[in-house]
Write a structure and sequence with these properties.
By secondary structure, this protein is an alpha+beta fold. The chain contains 7 helices and 15 strands. Strands 1-11-7-15-5-4-2 form a 7-stranded antiparallel beta sheet. Strands 3, 6, 9, 10, 12 and 13 form a 6-stranded antiparallel beta sheet that branches. Strand 12 and strand 13 form a beta hairpin. The longest helix has 24 residues. Bound molecules: 2-oxoglutaric acid and fe (ii) ion. Keywords: Iron, Metal-binding, Oxidoreductase.
């Protein structure tokens, strides 16, 4: 019996075949090694470049936490532009399915340029991809990246620094607020170059009487030492 069991093939691991399967179950999923270490370093180095950004935010001044970020200006750096279009195309079927399940009327076109035209027509014209930089003692309060009426329900953050080497602490945290229940938190395990895909504001959860909406927020726990950079990819533009 034991030998027979040993000879049996291992059970299939669906998440390994498609990491995005976890999105429906958890409201977030990790895309391991989305970009390589050299590309991470090149992107993180842009933070110190004088040009290419439309604004610079000191989080403490706005009560958002402690740390800073810069929104890219258009045209985006080619890698950011390519990632944004590629990820959007991959996430659109899930976004449309989620909207249907949550009883939301908006549907998303297959082409990101078409969705951006919709944002721009509604006055959401400013690019939202951003680079974040944190040092020791910095953190990012739980929040949602909503910038107007048009919201693509999923977004992506890419960790550009190596945990335990470049920084300690600074974990990516998600919370979900379920109706009439206490909130639940998740800490997302990320290595340098990994991306987390997560719900911007709400996700559908299957209950005994159909789907219901769960509200999600994300943030970053305090960086204990070192420096941490992230690339944030949001698919709607900002008013
Ligand atoms: O630094 C992080 O990991 C989170 C960044 C963030 O809030 C975002 O990309 O929207
Ligand atoms: Fe965010």
């Amino acid at each position: 019996m034991t030998t027979q069991l040993k000879l049996m093939p291992p059970p299939p691991v669906p998440d390994a075949a498609d990491p995005l399967i976890a999105l429906d179950r958890e409201g977030w999923a990790v895309l391991p090694g989305l970009i390589d270490a050299a590309a991470c370093d090149r992107l993180a180095a842009l933070y110190g470049a004088p040009a290419g950004f439309r604004s610079h935010i000191h989080m403490a001044r706005h009560g958002f936490g402690r740390g800073e970020y810069r929104y890219f200006a258009y045209p985006l750096p080619p890698l950011v532009e390519a990632l944004r279009g590629m990820l959007y195309a991959r996430l659109t079927p899930i976004a449309n399915r989620w909207h249907e399940r949550m009883g939301m009327t908006a549907r998303f076109p297959a082409d990101h340029a078409e969705f951006l035209a919709r944002c721009h027509d509604a006055g959401q014209r400013r690019p939202t991809p951003l680079l974040l930089q944190y040092g020791a003692g910095d953190y990012n309060c739980l929040h949602q990246d909503l910038y107007g009426e048009h919201v693509f329900p999923l977004q992506v953050a890419v960790l550009l620094s190596a945990p335990e080497e470049d920084f300690t602490g600074g974990e990516f945290v998600l919370t979900e607020q379920r109706p009439r229940m206490q909130s639940r938190a998740a800490v997302v395990p990320l290595a340098k170059g990994d991306a987390v895909v997560f719900a911007v504001n709400a996700r559908p959860v299957r209950g005994s009487r159909g789907d219901y909406r769960v509200t999600m927020r994300h943030g970053v726990s305090e960086i204990r030492s070192g420096r941490r950079h992230t690339l944030g990819v949001i698919f709607h533009d900002a008013a």
